[in-house]
Amino acid sequence: MNYFLISFAILIVLNIAMSIYLYKRDDLEQFQKIAQIVIVWLIPFVGAIALWLFNRSQDDNKPSGGSFGGGSSDRTSQLE
């Protein structure tokens, strides 16, 4: 009986954390946020973990701060 309560508590905490994570994402439209949160609550554990991995992979594809090297520089225009 204790294992059931512990797993239920972990499920609730995981779903709440994932719901907050999805709600705060700026790159999702409102419909996408609601649909993904519903999936998290309808498919316990698997839905939360799968959507977390999916959204995390989307973050890895975002371009970083800037390119390294090349391009124009303000310093060269100041030398003229």
Q: Could you tell me the radius of gyration in angstroms?
A: 21 Å
Number of strands: 0
H/E series: HHHH
**Hey, roughly how much beta strand do the residues contain?**
under 5%
What does the largest sheet look like? none
Distance between the termini: 78 Å
Number of helices: 4
Query: Which regions are unreliable across 5 or more consecutive residues at pLDDT < 50?
Result: none
Going by helix content, strand content and strand pairing, the class is: mainly alpha
- Taken from the alpha-carbon principal axes, the silhouette is elongated
Averaged pLDDT, please? 82
Portion in helices: over 70%
Quick synopsis:
This protein is mostly helical and 80 residues long. 70% of the residues lie in helices and 0% in strands.
Which tags fit this structure?
80 residues, 70% helix, 0% strand, elongated
Annotate the secondary structure layout:
Blueprint: H1 2-23, H2 30-42, H3 46-60, H4 74-79
Explain what the structure shows:
- By secondary structure, the protein is an all-alpha fold.
- Helix content is 70%, strand content 0%.
- It has helices at 2-23, 30-42, 46-60, 74-79.
- Helix 1 packs antiparallel against helix 2 (30-42) and helix 2 packs antiparallel against helix 3 (46-60).
- The radius of gyration is 21 Å and the shape is elongated.
- 8% of the residues are buried.
